[in-house]
Write a structure and sequence with these properties.
127 residues; alpha/beta; 2,3-Dihydroxybiphenyl 1,2-Dioxygenase, domain 1; 8 strands; Glyas_Bleomycin-R_OHBP_Dase; VOC domain-containing protein; Anthracycline_SecMetBiosynth; VOC_core
Length: 127
C-alpha cells in the first residue's frame, strides 16, 4: 500500500501563506527558520500533533496554478462549502466549486482553490 509521507507547498511570501492557511483551514501553522534544508524558511502544517507537510520558501521550485500534481487536503471536519467561503477573504480564489467525484458512487466531493501564493490546491470531503 502506498501512503502519503510528506508534501511541500512552495510559497513566495511565507507570512502571507501562513496567514492564508491558518484562516482557510482554521489551523495553526508553525514557522521554523530551517536554513539547512534548501536554504529555506519553512512553515510546518500540523494535524493531530503529526507533521504532514510544509509551506516552503526559497526552494528550487515555484508556486504554480497549472504545473505539477494536485495536492488534495481533506476537510471532513466541516462542510466543504464552509471552507470555500473563507478562501477569497484570505486572499485566494475558488477555481472549482464543490463537485461530486462520481454522482453514481459515494466517493465524496472535491473543490480546487488558488492559494495566496498561486498554487492550485485540491480539497476533498467524504461528505
Amino acid at each position: 500500500m502506498v501512503r502519503l509521507a510528506w508534501f511541500e507547498i512552495p510559497v513566495n511570501d511565507l507570512e502571507r501563506a501562513v496567514s492564508f492557511y491558518n484562516t482557510v483551514f482554521t489551523t495553526e501553522v508553525v514557522i521554523l527558520d530551517k536554513r539547512a534544508n534548501y536554504g529555506s524558511m519553512v512553515g510546518l502544517l500540523i494535524q493531530s500533533d503529526t507533521l504532514i507537510g510544509t509551506l516552503t520558501q526559497n526552494i528550487p521550485y515555484v508556486p504554480s496554478q497549472r504545473e505539477g500534481c494536485i495536492l488534495y487536503l481533506n476537510v471532513d471536519d466541516e462542510p466543504l462549502q464552509t471552507v470555500l467561503l473563507r478562501v477569497e477573504a484570505a486572499g485566494g480564489q475558488v477555481l472549482l466549486p464543490v463537485t461530486p467525484i462520481d454522482p453514481n458512487r459515494p466517493l465524496g466531493h472535491v473543490a480546487w482553490i488558488l492559494d495566496s501564493e498561486g498554487n492550485r490546491i485540491g480539497l476533498h470531503s467524504s461528505q
